[in-house]
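Notebook, p. 212. Picked up where the previous page left off. The plan for this session was modest: take the two constructs that came back from the sequencing core last week, fold each one, and keep the raw output in the notebook itself so nobody has to go hunting through shared drives later. Recording the first one now, exactly as returned: residue sequence, then the structure token string.
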Amino acid sequence: MKDIERNPDEESVYECFNCGTIVTATAAGSCPDCGADMRNRQTPIE
């Protein structure tokens, strides 16, 4: 499996671990809806 090449200046799609909210941003801290952690959707969950 290949890791993604990430450019911190480009926007990525992030998904909330808790409620599933999807956000496009350059960096995501916490979910704007529920405050839970976000993950980059291009990064596989293993």
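Okay, moving on. Second construct, recorded in the same format:
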Amino acid sequence: MTTGAIIMMLFGFGITWGGAAYCISLAMKKNGK
């Protein structure tokens, strides 16, 4: 694998997990109110 491919893969994982964490935090806030 090239360095660019590895960077893009890590970037994709960051977006996926970041989005999941954001959705979970939103759900926690809604349940808390």
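Notes on construct two before I forget. The mean pLDDT is 89.
Flagging for discussion at group meeting.
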